[in-house]
Automatic annotation (TrEMBL):
SUPFAM superfamilies reported for this sequence: CheW-like
Pfam family, one: CheW
Database matches in SMART domains: CheW
Protein's UniProt name: Chemotaxis protein CheW
PANTHER family listed in its UniProt record: CHEMOTAXIS SENSOR HISTIDINE KINASE-RELATED, PROTEIN PILI
Domain CheW-like: 27-168
């Protein structure tokens, strides 16, 4: 009989803790990645699954930062070479053979896109970092910098805002018109 009471008490405590966890506001967390030697933070709520860098099929007439398309779990995803898109690296060809991993955008963003990053670093908690403001120009989807306990600067990306940015959505390469008329 004592075991049943102890089990019931345990179940009640667990149910209470789960209810309290649901009622508390969720803390923001980031997936930390490296691109072109720079530290970037992606909100966990906006990042999707992580995939190994596999076969990417090139797309003709695409901008240099669109690496191509990849089949991820049976669905086609546009693969954006994030360091090239952000201007941290000149082109994918300059970097040599493609290495890294793919971070898919969360399905809630309604865009089948994955970001090629150089390296996954881990998870970061804003409670262990300090905001570092800068007046340097940056795209709207790049927020203020964050400095970690080791002194490294990280830039936070708003993936939802980036996924709606006209520059991100415009993947077609358009040749420049000739200055010489024929």
């Amino acid at each position: 009989m004592a075991n049943k009471d102890a089990l019931r008490d345990l179940q009640v405590r667990l149910a209470n803790r789960l209810r309290e966890a649901r009622e508390q506001p969720r803390q923001v967390g980031w997936l930390a990645v490296e691109c072109g030697g720079n530290g970037l933070l992606m909100p966990l709520a906006q990042a999707g699954e992580i995939h190994p860098l596999g076969r990417i099929t090139k797309v003709p007439h695409a901008k240099p930062w669109l690496a191509g398309v990849a089949n991820l779990r049976g669905e086609l995803y546009a693969v954006v070479d994030l360091p090239v898109f952000l201007g941290l690296q000149e082109s994918a060809k300059a970097a040599g053979p493609a290495q890294g991993q793919l971070v898919a955008l969360n399905a809630s963003l309604n865009l089948n896109a994955a970001l090629r990053v150089d390296r996954l670093v881990g998870l970061r908690d804003p409670e262990h970092m300090k905001v570092e403001h800068s007046d340097a120009p940056r795209p709207g989807f790049v927020s203020a910098g964050w400095r970690d306990a080791q002194g490294r600067l990280w830039q936070a990306l708003d993936l939802a805002q980036m996924a709606n940015d006209p520059a991100f959505l415009d993947v077609a390469h358009r040749p420049q018109a000739s200055a010489i008329k024929q």
